[in-house]
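[step 3/7] inverse_fold.run input=structure_tokens len=171
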């Protein structure tokens, strides 16, 4: 029981020291020029900061990185959840969707305006209504009369919501 109290007390002391260090670091960063802040960003992040990042966001990004180094990064469970969303934790960018590989003989079924359409996948293209086509997009265009992504039309790709522009604003 005493060991856990000592460990809790030492964690609290470390948190207080970290808060003091962060406050001191913040005061130092606020005195720096934008050029110096950009250099500090490069040093910590190992990449140039975005061109139009405001002074305030530069400071926030630098402080975040300093806290991350002092207290540790994201937990394994958070990293796992991020990887499931398709967002790369290191860059914050959306990873590309895995390519779709359909085996020959696969049948895709789609209902469009009350008519059921069945497409058979071949090694060198697709077959719809007994006719061969080079891609699903060509078939989707034939069915709808509009330019569609074939994989999306047949439900193989889900439309990704647009990336939130304020992703780093709360950092």
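[step 3/7] decode complete -> sequence:
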């Amino acid at each position: 029981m005493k060991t856990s109290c000592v460990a809790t007390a030492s964690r609290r002391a470390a948190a207080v020291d970290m808060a003091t260090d962060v406050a001191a670091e913040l005061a130092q960063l606020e005195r720096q020029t934008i050029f110096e802040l950009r250099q500090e960003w490069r040093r910590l992040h190992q990449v140039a900061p975005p061109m139009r990042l405001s002074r305030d966001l530069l400071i926030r990004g630098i402080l975040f990185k300093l806290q991350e180094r002092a207290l540790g990064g994201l937990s394994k469970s958070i990293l796992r959840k991020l990887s499931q969303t398709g967002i790369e934790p290191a860059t914050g960018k959306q990873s590309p969707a895995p390519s779709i590989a359909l085996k020959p003989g696969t049948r895709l079924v789609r209902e469009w305006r009350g008519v059921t359409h069945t497409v058979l996948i071949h090694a060198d293209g697709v077959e719809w209504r007994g006719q061969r086509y080079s891609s699903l997009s060509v078939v989707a265009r034939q069915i709808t009369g509009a330019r569609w992504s074939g994989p999306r039309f047949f439900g193989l790709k889900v439309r990704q919501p647009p990336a939130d522009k304020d992703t780093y604003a709360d950092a």
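[step 4/7] annotate
The first strand starts at residue 107 and ends at 112.
The two ends are 37 Å apart (CA to CA).
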